[in-house]
């Protein structure tokens, strides 16, 4: 019986040594996620609570224009444009580099933008952001950046869209 008690005591020590760090890591993960920086995504996205109490998610990426009235937002993932999504700003709330309202039709392929949304996406391919609050142009693309974006994504992305 003593051997069994010793073994049980040793097992409890091992469990305590293993479970305490795991619990600390779990609490740290939940704490960080609650503050809006989910360390697991690595996407550069930020989530925060807006002034009216709604959740706001901020994503960065580039625009790829498919046609006159259609474009895709390519969200960055660790420096690579991986996730394609349609974004529809309410009432054309698109802001230029200078912070002034600009026309949605003036977004061009290669423009680096920030999309502020409620973080919800519809389960489609490519996905569609549920509610977009605004799009902000961080940097307008020059001719070389525009051409590099077209060359990189043209064949893959044009499968999503056909001019009407």
List key phrases describing it.
OB fold (Dihydrolipoamide Acetyltransferase, E2P)
Plain-language structure description:
There is one protein chain. This protein has helices spanning 2-34, 143-157, and strands at 46-49, 55-67, 70-77, 80-86, 94-95, 101-102, 112-117, 121-122, 127-129, 132-139. It has 164 residues and is α+β, with helices and mostly antiparallel strands. The chain has two domains: 1-35; 46-160, OB fold (Dihydrolipoamide Acetyltransferase, E2P).
Short recap of the structure:
The chain has 164 residues and is α+β, with helices and mostly antiparallel strands. 29% of the residues lie in helices and 34% in strands. It has two helices and ten strands; from the N terminus they run αββββββββββα.
Architecture blueprint of SSEs:
Blueprint: H1 2-34, E1 46-49, E2 55-67, E3 70-77, E4 80-86, E5 94-95, E6 101-102, E7 112-117, E8 121-122, E9 127-129, E10 132-139, H2 143-157
Parallel strand pairs: 4-9, 5-10
Antiparallel strand pairs: 1-2, 2-3, 2-7, 3-4, 5-6, 7-10, 8-9
Total beta-strand segments: 10
Estimate the helix proportion, in percent.
25-40%
What percent strand? Answer: 25-35%
User: What structural category characterises the helix and strand content?
Assistant: alpha+beta
Work out the radius of gyration.
Answer: 23 Å
- What fold name goes in the CATH topology slot of the largest domain? OB fold (Dihydrolipoamide Acetyltransferase, E2P)
Global shape: elongated
Structural domains: how many? 2
Count of discrete alpha- or pi-helical segments spanning 4 or more residues = 2
Elements, N to C (H/E): HEEEEEEEEEEH
Do you know the CATH architecture of the largest domain? Answer: Beta Barrel
């Amino acid at each position: 019986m003593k051997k069994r008690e010793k073994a049980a005591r040793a097992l409890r020590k091992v469990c305590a040594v293993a479970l305490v760090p795991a619990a600390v890591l779990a609490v740290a993960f939940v704490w960080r996620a609650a503050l809006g920086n989910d360390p697991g995504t690595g996407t550069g996205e930020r989530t925060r609570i807006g002034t009216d109490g709604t959740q706001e998610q901020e994503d960065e990426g580039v625009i790829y224009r498919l046609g006159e009235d259609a474009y895709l937002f390519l969200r960055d993932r660790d420096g690579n444009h991986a996730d394609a999504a349609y974004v529809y700003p309410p009432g054309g709330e698109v802001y230029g580099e200078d912070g002034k309202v600009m026309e949605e039709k003036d977004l061009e392929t290669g423009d680096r933008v920030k999309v502020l949304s409620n973080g919800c996406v519809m389960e489609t391919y490519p996905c569609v952001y549920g509610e977009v609050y605004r799009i902000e142009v961080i940097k307008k693309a020059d001719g070389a950046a525009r051409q590099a974006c077209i060359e990189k994504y043209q064949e893959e992305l044009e499968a999503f869209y056909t001019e009407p």
